[in-house]
Amino acid sequence: MTDMRPSGLPFMKMHGLGNDFVVIDGRDGHAVDADLARAMGDRHRGVGFDQLALIGDGTDADVALTFWNADGSTAGACGNATRCIAAHELALRGLDTMTLRTERGRLEARATPDGVSVNMGAPLLDWRDVPLARDVDTLHLPIDGDPVATGMGNPHCTFFVDDAEAVDLAAFGSAHEHHPLFPEGTNVQLAHLLGPDHLRMRVWERGVGVTLASGSSSCAVAVAAARRGLTGRAVRIDLDGGTLMVDWRADGVWMTGPTAHVFDGVWHG
Fold this sequence. Notes:
It is built from four helices and 17 strands. By secondary structure, the chain is an alpha+beta fold.
């Protein structure tokens, strides 16, 4: 019988609150580089995604994850992709908990009634760790708008504004992504209070642009709001694509929300 299976690179398309990903299983020997990430990330000529995630074998964790942005650059952390992959692997393995190794470290994931929770680790609050270009107060950066800097495996710059929806996010984000204070570039968030422990947030991701949601950005905003005394450590964050719950605990920043496995495909590019 002729083997009718298509040749090419198998992938999954997943999203968390519209923050979308291509996921490739490297445990079968598949590899990813910047050129492939850019080609697949093109929303007109490729598949389209905010980030690409490669699953590998873990040594001290159940799996290891590596992330690329749509422009071919790498990302040290991707919270929503981590949750999506955890949901997939938990279902395959019939488990309630698992560990995932990223550049951020060894992360724990749990299945919950509200989706999947991932511990994104302790926030990085020292200027060297964010990283920033020089020694400044990360709670009050010397940038117009008085933003907060937070490291969550990648750098974040959070602006608290009167109305996040009233700001031209594309123009604002692109103007701040490569600010000289952030030598590796930065994710940019606009946030405002909706109520006690309830935030509205919009995000510009470095190497991507405007996204409907961002897990690591949500963690950074929750940490920044708590440090500023605007909220407690457990908050609800409403993004353009939906809602995440973030809880900054003693053992790290836990993020909880829904995930979706949209389709499986094969790349022939």
